[in-house]
Specification:
The chain is of the alpha+beta class and 218 residues long. It contains four helices and eight strands; from the N terminus they run H-E-E-E-H-E-E-E-E-E-H-H. Among the domains are: 58 residues, no CATH class; 92 residues, no CATH class. The strands form three sheets. A three-stranded antiparallel beta sheet has the order 2-1-3. Strands 5-4-8 form a three-stranded antiparallel beta sheet, with helices on one face. A hairpin with a 5-residue loop joins strand 4 and strand 5. Helix 3 packs antiparallel against helix 4. The N terminus is likely disordered.
Length: 218
């Protein structure tokens, strides 16, 4: 029960009692007063006019009035940012790699110069293109090389000599011209391929086309 004071007057000791009771109730733990509910105070007026505020019902014989103190509102939950704002603050994401149809070769990364090619020429003057140095060493019979074995013993017919193709590395414009040649050969091979080799021929064609378009054309 708070201190007494004049009837209807909240000054002096009476107002200190009211303030003390209000502060005590406001300091109650949150478990006793849920944040979402209002606090109920009892305003008790004694027969001598003393007024007190308390959190319990007034004693018998005193006039009782109820007062509600609104609970403090909880801090508002921040609303989600608009989709445009989220997109503008999102970190940069690398673009997804292009989809590759089964059977197609992935395009090579763009480079300053095309991959080098080697043009290898055999003894008969026939040339071929290779991506690595590949002279294809082999043992050629002496008779094929034009060696006269008419006076040699019969066993000489099996003699041979190791020969290699003459290979020259191509680069720059010469490499681009060679890749265009290789693309034409790959397209021709794909048109005449059987069903069991079409996938491989298509990969070779796609790879040659990607190199020509990415490395040899502005």
């Amino acid at each position: 029960m708070g201190a007494a004071g004049p009837r209807g007057d909240f000054g002096g000791a009476g107002i200190r009692a009211v303030v003390a009771a209000g502060l005590a109730l406001l300091a109650l733990p949150s478990a006793a007063t849920p944040a979402a509910a209002a606090t109920v105070l009892y305003r008790c007026t004694a027969t001598d006019g003393a007024v007190a505020l308390q959190d319990e019902p007034c004693p018998r014989g005193q006039k009782q009035e109820l007062r509600e103190i609104a609970a403090f509102a909880a801090a508002p939950t921040p609303s989600p940012a608009p989709a445009e704002a989220r997109l503008s603050t999102a970190p940069d994401i690398a673009p997804a790699p292009p989809e590759i149809t089964p059977g197609d070769a992935p395009p090579p990364p763009r480079s300053v110069l095309p991959p080098p090619l080697w043009r290898c020429t055999d003894l008969n003057g026939q040339s071929r293109l290779a991506e690595t140095y590949d002279p294809q060493p082999r043992c050629v019979p002496l008779s094929v090389l034009g060696v006269d074995l008419s006076r040699a013993p019969p066993s000489a017919a099996t003699l041979c000599r190791t020969v290699e193709d003459a290979c020259v590395e191509l680069g720059g414009d010469a490499a681009c011209a060679a890749w265009e040649e290789r693309l034409a050969d790959a397209e021709s091979a794909l048109r005449h391929a059987f069903s069991d080799t079409q996938a491989q021929r298509r990969r070779e064609r796609d790879r040659a086309r990607a190199i020509v378009e990415n490395d040899c054309r502005d």
